[in-house]
Specification:
Elements: H1 9-14, E1 22-25, E2 29-33, E3 43-47, H2 59-78, E4 85-89, E5 105-110, H3 130-141
The structure holds adenosine monophosphate and zinc ion (ZN).
Length: 146
């Protein structure tokens, strides 16, 4: 049984209490156009259960939602010959730019280098020794759950 939240805008979209432009839907997942359309075809994929972010996913929920991404991504790409690539991203937590606290995956088709989407990250390669990298990896590995 899917758990929804009465106060959540995306749960309302799941229940069709507020409108959305749907591109794909099944028992577990809904995909609809992002209202902001960073680029044309910008789509959100959401689980039909209220989870805030990836840290609340079970393995099963992760498998369910991520398994739908290739099908939807390929359909978006096929819908316009001018689409040359796609950024797929998920913001988890306010600091990581999440504004709607119902987990969602952005599919942003890319047309040109100046199409409105950008992403930057620092290159700190010079600051990390292999020992430091190994210690970071060991710490992460020690926190893997079964
Ligand atoms: P994020 O910042 O990753 O939480 O992204 C939330 C996204 O939800 C933004 O890109 C918004 O444009 C989008 N959004 C908010 N409300 C709606 C809505 N009613 N229908 C479609 N997209 C929405
Ligand atoms: Zn919700």
């Amino acid at each position: 049984m899917n758990k929804l939240n009465d106060d959540c805008i995306f749960c309302k979209i799941i229940k069709n209490e507020i409108p959305s432009i749907v591109v794909y839907e099944d028992d577990d997942v809904k995909a609809f156009l992002d209202i902001s359309q960073v680029t044309p075809g910008h789509t959100l994929v959401i689980p039909k259960t209220h989870v805030q972010n990836v840290f609340e996913y079970s393995d099963e929920l992760g498998a369910t939602i991520f398994s739908r991404i290739p099908k939807i991504a390929k359909a978006i790409k096929s819908s316009d010959k001018n689409i040359k690539g796609m950024n797929i991203c998920q913001n988890n937590g306010k600091l990581a730019y999440q504004s709607v606290m119902h987990s969602h995956i952005h599919l942003v088709p890319r047309y040109t280098a100046e199409d409105g989407f950008s992403m930057t990250w620092a290159d700190n390669t010079d600051k990390y020794t292999s020992e430091k990298l190994q210690s970071i990896a060991d710490n992460i590995k020690n926190n893997l759950e079964d």
